[in-house]
Write a structure and sequence with these properties.
mainly beta; Ribosomal Protein L3, Chain: B, domain 2; Ribosomal protein L3, domain 3; 6-stranded antiparallel beta sheet; 6-stranded antiparallel beta barrel; 4 helices; 15 strands
């Protein structure tokens, strides 16, 4: 993943991952002082993300070259979990002490330290046996401090509370819903032609002039719609914790089921269908929201007709 935000202070991780469970709505007290609704109870859409703990299985060091960041060396924990071995079958741990000494040897060349984190899908509501691997940069401190911090995390399990706090705004990265091959009317929203049109009604009237003899960029054409990697900035955390009964509707979420552990409730909607892997990271831009927790007065968990 790219475009991670810069961070100062002590060494800490800059991201996490989870699975989209579903949506609901919540009533919150508006706390933006410049808003005309300040102090009033407002209704907002909300998205629940299942965030089971992640296991730190490796450390990777990157050097800065004229072609960008390039991996120098890496170290993997011994006795890797079975779901990780199913994902990367060529890795079998190796001599941990030898690989860690190699990282220390190249410390003067390392520009960025990243940990390799693995999800635990068996602790979420997804039916998969392979873990999803994610590189998470370490921010804050010097390279030597970051390396010592990453070595202390190797083989350990981290939770969402170790990275984010209530009321914080974060960036969300994921893949949108796939809609397949679609025409220009659905894909670009062009107007349907009149009844007496020649050949087609759900197409553009002209794809361009005689010269230049090519279709110019920007002309609405049919093609793949959806299934694109997208990022949304500054999504506010409304609720976060392990009391999953508080956010789980009666009967569970549609196409997902019931939560089993930690969760994050974000304001608004996010990309993708249920069970899709969602990456959460520290915000890379200044937010218009206050950094303190927001008061949630009501969260809808009723079973809606048609959700079965």
């Amino acid at each position: 993943m790219r475009f991670w935000p810069e961070a100062g202070g002590d060494p800490h991780l800059l991201g996490f991952a989870g699975y989209k469970a579903g949506m609901t709505h919540a009533f919150v007290i508006e706390d933006r002082t410049h808003s005309p609704d300040f102090g009033m109870e407002m209704k907002n859409a909300a998205t629940i993300i299942d965030v089971p703990p992640m296991t730190i299985v490796g450390i990777r060091g990157y050097e800065k070259t004229y072609d960008g960041l390039k991996a120098i060396t890496e170290a993997w924990m011994e006795d890797l979990p079975l779901d990780v071995l199913r994902t990367v079958k060529t890795i079998r741990g190796g001599d941990l002490d030898k690989t860690l000494k190699a990282l220390e040897k190249f410390a003067d060349r390392i520009h960025q330290i990243r940990v390799i984190a693995a999800t635990q899908p068996h602790r979420a509501g997804v039916t998969k046996k392979k873990a999803d691997l994610l590189e998470i940069p370490v921010g804050g401190g010097t390279i030597e401090e970051q390396l010592e911090y990453a070595k202390g995390l190797l083989g350990e399990t981290i939770g969402i509370n170790d990275i984010f706090k209530l009321g914080e705004t974060i960036d969300v990265i994921g893949v949108t819903k796939g809609k397949g091959f679609q025409g220009p009317v659905k894909r670009w929203g062009i107007r349907i032609l009149q009844r007496k049109s020649r050949k087609t009604k759900r197409g553009v009237g002209s794809i361009g002039p005689w010269k230049p003899r090519r279709v110019m960029p920007g002309v609405p054409r049919a093609g793949q719609m959806g299934l694109h990697n997208r990022m949304e900035r500054n999504k506010r955390i409304l609720l976060m914790g392990s009391d999953f009964e508080r956010v789980t509707p009666a009967g569970g979420f549609k196409s997902y089921g019931k939560l089993q552990g930690d969760y994050v409730l974000l304001k608004g909607s996010i990309m993708g269908p249920a069970k899709r892997l969602i990456t959460l990271r520290k915000a890379s831009r200044k937010s218009r929201y206050p950094s303190k927790p927001i008061k949630v007065t009501y969260l809808n968990t009723e079973f809606r007709k048609g959700d079965d």
